[in-house]
Specification:
CATH class: Alpha Beta
CATH topology: Aminopeptidase
Helix content: 25-40%
CATH architecture: 3-Layer(aba) Sandwich
Strand order of the largest sheet: 1-2-3-4-6-5
Organism: Mycolicibacterium arenosum
Distance between the termini: 35 Å
Largest sheet: 6 strands, mixed
Number of domains: 1
Protein name: GNAT family N-acetyltransferase
Number of helices: 3
Number of strands: 6
Structural class: alpha+beta
Radius of gyration: 14 Å
Pfam family, one: Acetyltransf_1
Shape: globular
CATH superfamily: Gcn5-related N-acetyltransferase (GNAT)
Keywords: Acyltransferase, Transferase
Order of helices and strands: HEEEHEHEE
Length: 111
């Protein structure tokens, strides 16, 4: 693993219910946007809006910092993600092989 996750960890959110982890958001604040590095929800908790809640937190953070966008990407094979992100207001801006993975890149204007 070559990635430096220090900034993502510093800007992470963990959604818990008692002692159970429901979901996690890792986001990196860049100069002109918030990059959602990872958003994950426990399999037993999917479909309840927790992923949407975590993404909304990243979007809110971008607005609070005076930034106008959130950005993220997903693997092209993740068909559920490819359908979900546009429903949440994300716009597909690119598809390419990046670091050996077929990725789809999305941007959301949060103004």
């Amino acid at each position: 693993m070559d990635a430096d996750y220090a900034d993502a960890v510093a800007h992470s959110r963990v959604l818990v219910d008692g002692d159970r982890i429901i979901g996690v958001l890792a986001a990196v604040v860049e100069s002109d946007h918030v990059f959602v590095d990872s958003v994950a929800v426990a399999p037993a908790e999917t479909g309840r809006g927790y992923g949407r809640m975590l993404l909304a937190d990243a979007e809110s953070r971008a607005r609070e910092l005076g930034l106008t966008q959130t950005r993220l990407y997903t693997n092209a094979a993740m068909t559920e993600n490819l359908a979900m992100y546009p429903r949440l207001g994300y716009v597909e801006v690119d598809r390419r092989t990046d670091e050996g993975f077929d990725r789809v890149f999305f941007v959301k204007d949060v103004r």
